[in-house]
Amino acid sequence: MPESTAATRLGKNRTGLQMSPHHAEEMLEANELLEESENQVSLRDGEALSATRLEYIAAADPLGSVPAPAILKGAAKSSAKMLTGRRPQVFIDKLAERLAFERGGTRLYDAVCAKAVAQTTESDKVSPEELLEIRDSEARHALLIKECLETLGADPTAQTPCADLVGVETMGFIQAASDPRTTLAQTLHAALAAELIDNEGWEGLIVMARQMGHKDMADLFQDALEEEAEHLMKVRNWYTLLNRESSELM
Ligand SMILES: [Fe+2]
């Protein structure tokens, strides 16, 4: 059975309410009891959970901090470019975010490439060579950002708050793509979501680079954005094609 067909085969899925009408009825009765109890209404509405969340938010520290660039510590080389703007650390944080995302994107495509090699029936429609090109392009983008951070006297190995954030946000993409049970189409769904975020990320970074007076960087980021737009188009086309073929299979 082709992977695309196996992925949506009919089987003994017992997760839905319809599998056990008797238990479903009991559960819905319990729901009614909760609704009748005034004390429990807040639980049903999630108000108690919200209240607990508010307590934790009030007591929480920020995700982390942005280390001061060497240039601000007075240890920069003469070639290092001065950071302009009132709060240049915001730019450094967003650069570190892009670096984390592109590094993660490289790992994501490592997993997509492996899936394309493993699932030959599906990958006939998907070019492994082009997938590898996208992987290498993500790695080049990570390197570009690393060099930009170094030019600014910043430490590209530092985990800044936004770098931390995207690391956590995109964890699911890599988990989904690395899961041996997911098909190539399912893996491409994760890649498609990542590419949508990636394109948005570069657009924002270009605007910020111009605002901070780094036109040369903004131009390089514009080139990266054009490559990202191409990634998005290819992944979207492959994903659409595999899904269409899967729905047409008998
Ligand atoms: Fe990309």
Write down how many β-strands occur, each being a DSSP E stretch of 2 or more residues: 0
What is the CATH architecture term of the largest domain?
A: Up-down Bundle
Ions, cofactors and other bound molecules: fe (ii) ion
How much is the radius of gyration in Å? Answer: 24 Å
Order of helices and strands: HHHHHHHHHHHH
The DSSP helix count reads: 12
Quick one: biggest sheet? none
Number of domains: 2
Cα distance, first to last residue?
Answer: 11 Å
CATH topological fold name of the largest domain: Ferritin
pLDDT < 50 runs, ≥5 residues:
75-80
Helix fraction? over 70%
Strand content: under 5%
Mean pLDDT: 88
Task: Give the CA-based shape.
Answer: flat
Write the layout of secondary structure elements.
Blueprint: H1 3-6, H2 21-36, H3 41-44, H4 47-59, H5 70-73, H6 89-118, H7 120-123, H8 128-151, H9 161-169, H10 171-178, H11 184-211, H12 215-248
Helix pairs in contact: 6-8, 6-9, 6-10, 6-11, 8-12, 10-11, 11-12
Describe this structure in words.
This is Ferritin-like domain-containing protein. The chain is mainly alpha-helical and 250 residues long. The chain folds into 2 domains: 42 residues, no CATH class; 176 residues, Ferritin. It is 71% helix and 0% strand. It is built from 12 helices and no strands. The longest helix has 34 residues. The chain starts with a helix and ends with a helix. The site of fe (ii) ion has 7 residues, from helix 8, helix 11 and helix 12.
